[in-house]
UniProtKB/TrEMBL annotation:
Domain of life: Bacteria
PTM-bearing positions, type N6-(pyridoxal phosphate)lysine: 255
Cofactor binding, per record: Binds 1 pyridoxal phosphate per subunit.
A GO term, aspect molecular function: pyridoxal phosphate binding
Protein name per UniProt: Acetylornithine aminotransferase
Length: 407
């Protein structure tokens, strides 16, 4: 074991941390805007955004000011007390979305846990205990609690944790007929990502989403949109549902909501919210004043029309450039996604090697993500400067040239 005065290294992780992650050797220590520096002072263009979290880049002055103002006032309140920053943030969310009621948590998993519990509780209260089944989609990801990992459609995340919660059905994404075959009077909720994230950045077909809305209406089931990754401007709309013409009954939000400060939220209407009585759900840190103050400023910025228009314009520039690179180097066979959540699907000869390309990207000075073994994922800041976008793309080209030369 290293002493407290020893340098922090990747090896220390293996000595002191539970091995649920396998982090890279690069250790970032400073960041500003869309640029990050590691312990050795090497600079990277950030196309990863902390997995779609740092939506306004690093060290945004308005977020720093909001945090500092609140830090000088009060850091934490239990939910025994009324909380000014939480109520201010909830009011803004209700003004900007379909929501009439908000519940705050600390993460996307907790927000989804609350959404699924609310759907089951509402169905039980209104229709009876037999209405408890949940329909979800293969390859989806909704979090790491036992309930949310069971609802997520990736068996690798549930192995060894059985027995799992019952009454959950998985069907193929974008397959309305398959969903219709399992949704019934016993269904209390259908949960769906507007863009399938961890399985390759696959956008939902609008007809598929519209069909789910009709099925939920027919069977009195709650339609839940998991917008943990797509929310807060990521798709070019404040929330992705706004561009699909379909309003959910429950929406979950996290990741970008705090711009890097941990916070999650569940949004719903008053009728469903009423099924959660006092004491039926809760969170010690949910609605933390520091988190809510920062999130309120994030929403104030991202909801500005020029910011959302900028996301759509950056999407066009980014995807046009990536398609040109795909044609030149033949490493990608499809560029897909919405806004600044972009997936680069690997061509046949590169399938299964996404993580190798991620490592090459770091060596070329650009941070990217993977979305499964066959897709590179890009989720840069929503306000990334054009110069940084261009430089990042230049480094992606170097990555692709290097990859082709080493094949």
């Amino acid at each position: 074991m290293q002493s407290q005065n020893a340098p922090i290294t990747r090896e220390l992780f293996d000595q002191v941390m539970v091995p649920t992650y396998n982090p890279l050797a690069v250790i970032p220590v400073r960041a500003e805007g869309s640029r990050v520096w590691d312990q050795q002072g090497r600079e990277y263009i950030d196309f990863a955004g902390g997995i779609a979290v740092t939506c306004l880049g690093h060290g945004h002055p308005r977020l720093l000011a909001a945090l500092q103002r609140q830090a000088a006032k009060i850091w934490h309140l239990s939910n025994v007390m009324t909380n000014e920053p939480a109520l201010s943030l909830a009011r803004r969310l209700c003004e900007l979305t379909f929501a009439e009621r908000v519940f705050f948590a600390n993460s996307g998993a907790e927000a989804n846990e609350a959404a699924l519990k609310l759907a089951r509780k509402h169905a039980s209260v209104r229709f009876g205990a037999q209405k408890y089944e949940i329909v979800a989609f293969e390859q989806a990801f909704h979090g790491r609690t036992l309930f949310t990992v069971s609802v997520g459609g990736q068996p690798k995340y549930t192995q060894g944790f059985e027995p799992l919660p019952a009454g959950i059905h998985h069907v193929p994404y974008n397959d309305l007929a398959a969903a219709e075959a399992v949704i019934s009077e016993r269904t209390c909720a259908v949960i769906v990502e507007p863009v399938l994230g961890e399985a390759g950045i696959v956008p939902a077909d609008p007809a598929f989403i519209g069909g789910l809305r009709k099925l939920c209406d027919r069977y009195s089931a709650a339609l839940i949109f998991d917008e943990v990754q797509t929310g807060v401007g990521r798709t070019g709309e404040l929330y992705a549902y706004m561009g699909l013409g379909v309003t959910p009954d429950i929406l979950t939000t996290a990741k970008a909501l705090g711009g890097g400060f941990p916070i999650g939220g569940m949004l719903t209407n008053a009728a469903l919210a009423a099924s959660f009585s006092v004491g039926s759900h809760g969170s010690t840190y949910g609605g933390n004043p520091l988190a809510c103050a920062v999130a309120n400023e994030v929403l104030a910025i991202v909801s500005e029309p020029q910011v959302l228009a900028g996301v759509r314009e950056r999407h066009r520039r980014l995807t046009d450039a990536l398609r040109a690179l795909a044609s030149r180097y033949e490493v990608f066979d499809e560029i897909r996604g919405r806004g600044l959540l972009v997936g680069c699907a690997l061509s046949e000869r590169w399938r299964g090697r996404a993580r190798e390309l991620l490592h090459m990207g770091l060596e070329e000075g650009v941070m990217v993500l993977v979305a499964g073994p066959n897709t590179l994922r890009l989720a840069p800041s929503l306000v990334i400067p054009q110069a940084d976008l261009d430089e990042g793309l230049h480094r992606v080209e170097r990555l692709l040239a290097r990859a082709v030369n080493t094949l």
